[in-house]
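Hi Y.,

Following your request, here is the sequence exactly as I used it, all 416 residues.
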Amino acid sequence: MKRIVLQSGTDMTRVALLEDELVVEFDMERPLERQQAGSLYLGRVVNVLPGMQAAFVDIGLEKNAFLYIDDLLPAHLEKQPAVKPSITELVRPGQTLIVQVDKEPSGTKGARVTTHYSLPGRWLVYMPDAAYVAVSRKIEAEGEKKRLKALAEEMRRPEEGVILRTVSAGQPAEALLHDLSLLRERWRTVLAAAKSSKAPCLLYRDADLLQRTLRDLVREDVADIVVDCAPAAEQLRALLQPGASAAAPNIRVHDGEVPLFDAFGVTEQLERAFRRKVWLPSGGYLVVDQTEALTVVDVNTGKYTGKIDLEETVLHINLEAAETIARLLRIRNIGGIVIVDFIDMERDSSRLAVLTRMSDSVRRDRIKTNVVGWTKLGLLELTRRKSRDNWSELFVQTCPHCQGKGRTIPELQHEN
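Below is the corresponding structure, written out as tokens. Let me know if you'd prefer a different format.
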């Protein structure tokens, strides 16, 4: 059973997705720190760098945004030129253009922006200039894929692009058309604002956490949503789109004396999930280290000794680790390159079993995650799309003395 637990406060809103009482996804938002990803801006090109095939765009944030040439070329691959032009042919300093934040600002880097605009709705994603239709790969029934694609082709205009989301499976044509109409109107509002505004300025901000919870997390298999205040419950009920075939989850208000996240064990699970050393149910453990370039996960047998032989012991730990790692990626919002050092296995069948388990486990992730495979050194490589910083940077405070390394350089003693 899946359940959404949402804790709403004046200083922060937090939401957790539970599967059989286990936290598998987490998100949070402060009122004054709304996420930038998905927001649309009217930007002004500050400078163009032909050597990097990129431009820097002022969108009104502290740091200029980065616009790569691939994000200027048409979204439809078949409409892109055979030979990539110089970016100087596409934009010039001082030019204004509408851009959408693809990746949040991070550290010393500004946001990454694109002109491949996309507006997500409840059932579909609307791309005003993409000119193609796609259906979520997680919809496996071929008949349903064909039905959804035919409906989208019928509803869209020639220049428009539509992606049918996983939750669109089984939805009637009326619900899809209603969603598309709302998104078209939203895009018209953006264009009108751009004509009457001066760059740099915000044209459209993506939904807040309550709206994103309903849009991105609510599925037919979500039994209920538990919130800690009546206003949040009423807002969620009002946001539920009428006329859809999906059974609406039960929305109820938590009335116990124990805080909501504590009552459902969310606080304790998050505390364990954000540790450097994460224990596995059987007694093995993971060590998670994050750097600017990548995340490294080391798998260890720990207290687990097994019952049959070494290979079976190692395989059991590695399979358990694969499921836990996939869950940690979602909870901690880890993006970019991930390298996993599983315990060495002798048999090819064991390595295949671990690869399969990892692939199956990341398939439940909403964020695109790709299991690349085993490297020559026996490490498993994954990539996960990164749109914003992982939560560890908010939950874990770096030691000012060792900078998170766990070591300090001793002071050199000088003889007089």
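The chain has a mean pLDDT of 88.

Thanks again,
Q.
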